[in-house]
Write a structure and sequence with these properties.
About 70% of the residues lie in helices and about 5% in strands. By secondary structure, it is mainly alpha-helical.
Length: about 290
C-alpha cells in the first residue's frame, strides 16, 4: 500500500515523525507544569516566559560570552532555575494556601512583564541560533530525511522526561517531595527543610522549561513572544493528561504532537485546534484527565 485515503504513506510517516518532534517539546514543557502544579498546587502561567528566557540565555551566552550549545544546555537551565527560585521565595510563597486563582494571576502578570521587558530591550523580530556542527546533516529513514538535530531533540526530550518521572515516582527524593505536599508540618518535624524543598521544586520545574527553550532555539527564531503562543497548547496538554500527573503529561504531550502532525496531512485547517478539540472531549468524558485522580 503506497497511499492511504489518497495520501502517500511516505508523507504521512514524515508528518508523524515531525509531529513527534513537536510532541517532545509539548512533553517537556507540560512536564515542568505538572511538576509545579502536582507538588506546589500553583498554576504557573509564567512557564512560557521561562521557556523564552532559556532560549535567550543560550543566544546571549553565545553572542556575548562565546558559550557553545553544549554548555548552554547545562548553564541556561541552571541560570533560569535560580531565577525561578528567587521568584518563588519573593512572590509565590505569599499566595500558598490561597485560592489557586491568585497564583495564576501572579504568574500571568510575571509572564507579561517578562515578555514586555524582552521586547523593549531586544525588539520583536527575533534572531536565529546556529545548529551545533556535530548535529548538522540528516538521517535517511527511508520515507524521509530527518534532520539530525530534530532526532537529537526527540532523544534528549524522552531521556529527560522519563528520568524526571523516575526520580519523582520511584526514588526517596520523590517520596519526600510528595510528602511535602501532603503534610509539610510533619515532614518539617523530621528535620526536612520544606521551604527549601519547595523552592528547589519550583526551580527544577522552570529549569525544564528553560531546557526546552535551549533545545528549540536552533529550530525557531528566538524572540520575546515564542513562549506565549506555545504555553496555551501546553496547558491543554496538561489538562488532557491530568493536572499534576507526571506520566500523563509526558504521554499526552508525545501523543498530541503526533495527532497534530497527522491532522496536518488529513485536514490541515484543523491542525491548530485539534489539541483543544481533544481537550474538550476529554473534559466531557473524564474531567480529571486521562491519568488524573479525583
Amino acid at each position: 500500500m503506497t497511499s492511504v485515503l489518497g495520501i502517500p504513506v511516505a508523507v504521512i510517516l514524515g508528518q508523524l515523525t515531525l509531529g513527534l518532534v513537536n510532541g517532545s517539546f509539548y512533553a517537556m514543557l507540560s512536564l515542568g507544569l505538572a511538576v509545579i502544579f502536582g507538588l506546589l498546587r500553583v498554576v504557573n502561567f509564567a512557564h512560557g516566559a521561562f521557556y523564552t528566557l532559556g532560549a535567550f540565555a543560550a543566544l546571549l551566552g553565545l553572542q556575548w560570552l562565546g558559550i557553545n550549545y553544549w554548555l548552554a544546555l547545562i548553564l541556561a537551565p541552571l541560570a533560569v532555575g535560580v531565577v525561578g527560585i528567587v521568584v518563588e521565595r519573593l512572590l509565590l510563597r505569599r499566595v500558598y494556601g490561597l485560592d489557586p486563582l491568585y497564583g495564576l494571576l501572579l504568574t500571568f502578570g510575571l509572564a507579561l512583564v517578562c515578555e514586555g521587558s524582552l521586547t523593549q530591550v531586544f525588539g520583536a523580530s527575533g534572531a536565529s541560533y546556529p545548529v551545533p556542527p556535530a548535529l548538522t546533516g540528516a538521517v535517511n529513514l527511508g520515507f524521509m530525511f530527518l534532520p539530525l538535530y530534530r532526532a537529537w531533540v526527540i532523544a534528549i526530550s524522552l531521556a529527560v522526561c522519563f528520568s524526571t518521572w523516575f526520580v519523582i515516582e520511584r526514588t526517596r527524593l520523590g517520596a519526600t517531595l510528595r510528602a511535602a505536599t501532603e503534610n509539610a508540618p510533619l515532614l518539617q518535624a523530621f528535620g526536612v527543610n520544606v521551604p527549601l524543598l519547595v523552592a528547589a521544586t519550583y526551580g527544577g520545574g522552570v529549569a525544564l522549561a528553560a531546557l526546552a527553550g535551549v533545545l528549540a532555539s536552533p529550530i525557531v527564531l528566538v524572540n520575546a513572544h515564542m513562549g506565549s503562543s506555545l504555553v496555551i497548547v501546553v496547558f491543554a496538554v496538561v489538562v488532557i493528561g491530568g493536572m499534576g500527573s507526571i506520566l500523563g503529561s509526558i504521554v499526552s504531550g508525545l501523543v498530541l504532537g503526533v495527532v497534530e502532525g497527522l491532522t496536518k496531512v488529513v485536514y490541515p485547517e484543523a491542525s491548530n485546534v485539534v489539541v483543544f478539540l481533544v481537550m474538550a472531549l476529554v473534559l466531557v468524558l473524564r474531567p480529571t484527565g486521562l491519568f488524573g485522580k479525583e
